[in-house]
Amino acid sequence: MTRQKISRADLGALLAKLQQDYTVYAPAEVAGYSTFRPITSPEEVDWYCLVTRKPPKELFFPQSETLFEYICSSDGLALHPGEGVQRERILWGVRPCDARAMLVQDTVFNTSEARDVYYSNKREHTTIVGIGCNEPLQTCFCTSVGGRPFRHEGFDLFLTDIGDAYLVEALTPKGDKLLEGSELFPVSQADLRTAQAVEQAARQRLPAPIDLEHIQKRLQEMINSPFWDEAQAPCLGCGICTFLCPVCHCFDIVDEPVNASCGLRVRNWDTCQYCIYTLEASGHNPRPGGRERVRQRLMHKFDYQPLRQNVLGCVGCGRCVQLCPVNIDIRQLLVGIGATE
Amino acid sequence: MTSATRAPEALANPQLNPYLPVPMRIERTQVETDDNMLKSFDLSFVHSEDAANFRFRPGQFCEISVFGKGEAPFGIASSPTEPGPLKFTANKIGVLTTALHSMHEGEILGLRGPLGNGYPLEKFEGHNVVIIGGGFAFTTLRSLTQYLLHPDHRSRFRDIIIIYGARRPGLLLYTDDLAAWERRQDVQVHLTIDQAVPGWTKLVGFVPDVVAKVAPTAEDTYAVICGPPVMIRFTMPKLTGLGFPRERIYSSLERRMKCGIAKCGRCNIGPYYVCKDGPVFSYAQLEGLPEEY
């Protein structure tokens, strides 16, 4: 489907109409910052938030999720895994970096040999509406790692803000469905020129691509490099870089007993940056120090995931740069890795 | 579109939802060591259809649920050639295994599996196999040995040598099986303890030294080595000294695990997940990767 135009007011009306049939999640304020949450009115949407505090991954892979309720008896075992998604969902206002991260998570959870049905159930019942980034932040670096501020991959519908209106482009049948019955206008040459100028201006704010093949080769060669001692020195091991990373998918599974015979089995986000993550009951820890843990984070994103899943484990959203309490900047680490001998 | 969707069948189906364990009944427990720390659990499937769906090979493992405490991975100690319950042997070392040790015959556990790759039996075929074990890391080696020695399979393999060491006699696992293997003519069994004790008539010394003394030929031979990291570290040079290439030395690795299906992230060694690509690796595969095991 080609691009069409929708006025700001009509887009708000469209969103209000969609809420009748879907649960709509959009960036909206919670406790002073913007994050994806169900909205009750289009007025709640934060249209200008580029990087939500928590990434939209939590809509498919919640921070905490019950896998099942268990009830044990002397006769056997009853498991109740829950109902799955009950109402179709729209994830509105997702940025291209976060959509790219969802495609990476698909390669972890949606594999043919062991399909994560909790994840895929939510994924199947969600329509994703993207929006391009007119004014990337200082911490944004999608273009360094192969992304673009107006990349369309992973979306059902894509919006481009051209000032007084939006260009709207349905990319899948699910996206077409959202636009049914909306008042859309043809796009003029002037509109296309505006969109082009917006995209160009956005790209100019973003850094140049980095040589990812060189980074990967260096990582494989520098396992024992003193670089990692220096890289980990300021790290507190708080794990925020991985919790808030839209790509990171690690989790823990724990039982939360209600009583001796029943309880919940729950999975929670976990992080390779914690000492306890790999600590075994014997006391042995295969990654005993910050050096091994910081190395794991970088190698997983820039070597292991490319090798294993043929995708990069970083999309350049910059959350880890924004929120690290000691200002560790993955962009600088990559420069450092590239420059090691 | 009013789009209330039905609860997907997949969530409730253990064949489609890889996180759902199936119920197992404890048939029998047996304390294996004189310090009471190692205990074997023979588990049978509560539902016959679960038993029918369960096909495994030596070296694979399962996630066992002790409900209320969680799940942990255990190698399958019984062999696919042994009819009846599955055997697992647990060291009482953490919260889950302590709870497991206090469970009794008739009680219900959960099981997910079989998981992992297992030993490369096709590669071993037509070759000699040297099995080297230390301490309580003999569980899947028991499965492997029983498989290799079974009348249906023994002729597919050449010489089989077992070298198994423990700190003292009371810490050797599966003593009945060891005695049965010692009585056979078609397998060499070398049992060793760290220090001599009265009544012990077999070998004395650490596993690496016994490997050097037994000196199995490296020609047409695969070695499988499982044990504490310190034993492996000192045995590896003995094996390479005997001429074993890293491609023909296999080990079954242990890591803390949760999902068992390469999703939760924690058990990777380089680009490999121990739960899915392992737990059995050749040392050639591990070369050049961080030594995170």
Roughly what is the average pLDDT of chain A, rounded to an integer?
95
Shape of chain A: globular
Biggest interface between protein chains, with counts per chain? A-B, 67 and 56 residues
* Percentage of β-strand residues of chain A: 15-25%
**Count of alpha/pi helices of chain B:** 9
C-alpha end-to-end distance of chain A: 50 Å
Provide the gyration radius of chain A in Å.
Answer: 22 Å
What does this structure look like?
The complex is a heterodimer of chains A (341) and B (293). Chain A has 341 residues and is of the alpha+beta class. Chain A has two domains: 201 residues, no CATH class; 128 residues, no CATH class. An eight-stranded mixed beta sheet of chain A has the order 3-2-6-7-8-9-1-10, sandwiched between helices. In chain A, a hairpin with a 2-residue loop joins strand 4 and strand 5. The longest helix of chain A has 20 residues. Chain A is globular and about 65 Å long. Helices cover 23% and strands 28% of the residues of chain B. In chain B, strand 11, helix 8 and strand 12 form a beta-alpha-beta unit. Chain B has 293 residues and is of the alpha/beta class. The N terminus of chain B is likely disordered. Chain B folds into two domains: 107 residues, Translation factors (Elongation Factor Tu (Ef-tu), domain 3, Beta Barrel); 132 residues, 3-Layer(aba) Sandwich (Rossmann fold), CATH 3.40.50. The interface between A and B is large, with 67 and 56 residues.
